[in-house]
Amino acid sequence: MSSMDKNISPAVIKRLPRYYRYLGALKAKNITRISSKELSERMKVTASQIRQDLNNFGGFGQQGYGYNVENLYVEIGKILGLDKSNQMIIVGAGNLGQALANYQDFNNNSIGFQVIALFDVNPKLIGITVHGVEVHDIDDMEEFIKNHEIKIAALTLPQDQAPKIAKELASWGIKGFWNFAPVDLTLPDSVTVENVHLAESLMTLTYNIHSREDNEDTGE
């Protein structure tokens, strides 16, 4: 059963990659089965929450046995679409774009993503390769997307460029954006955007640090 078969809470969907990561670590240690209680202790999520989450997709557990780690890992991977080939491009081949292209998890068989091209306007970058992936001229992007039927684009662009380029990409067939640009994108409802705003994440971190320090100082 896929997450599209019924109305699954976004919070549940956001927890699935974490389940997948923990199960992958268990699999690497040759652990073949685990109970919801044991998994909850590792993940700091209640056992009932784990059971409720997985029951959205059929459950997968067996009474008195728990979960088969390999089977659950494979099934969650299917729910997340990792059993399919998800080719993606990176738009913006600066430091962040190159770091993403070098990200080792894109270059093994454990997840279904493959970066097949980077694009940039800088003539000094066009033609170089990053982890075996070529940087192309951004003017060639429309033809490349259509020829390769690309559906995912990572945006590592300046704030002022991202909205315009995102709209063009969507019109050329991109269905999902991994957006690292510090700006909200206004796109059709048929397009999915996953924002990764690094500065906002860091601000949340500093808030929590200083909030705890203030509470300690006041004895709360």
Automatic annotation (TrEMBL):
Keywords: Cytoplasm, DNA-binding, NAD, Repressor, Transcription, Transcription regulation. InterPro entries: CoA-bd (IPR003781), NAD(P)-bd_dom_sf (IPR036291), Rex_DNA-bd_C_dom (IPR009718), Tscrpt_rep_Rex (IPR022876), WH-like_DNA-bd_sf (IPR036388), WH_DNA-bd_sf (IPR036390). Residues 18-57 bind DNA. Gene3D superfamilies: NAD(P)-binding Rossmann-like Domain, Winged helix-like DNA-binding domain superfamily/Winged helix DNA-binding domain. SMART domains: CoA_binding. It comes from the Bacteria. Signal peptide: none annotated. Residues 81-184 form the CoA-binding domain. It is found in: Cytoplasm. GO terms for molecular function: DNA binding; DNA-binding transcription factor activity. NAD(+) binds at G92, A93, G94, N95, L96, G97. Belongs to the transcriptional regulatory Rex family. HAMAP family: Rex. Homodimer. Modulates transcription in response to changes in cellular NADH/NAD(+) redox state. This is Redox-sensing transcriptional repressor Rex. The lineage of its organism: Bacteria, Bacillati, Bacillota, Clostridia, Lachnospirales.
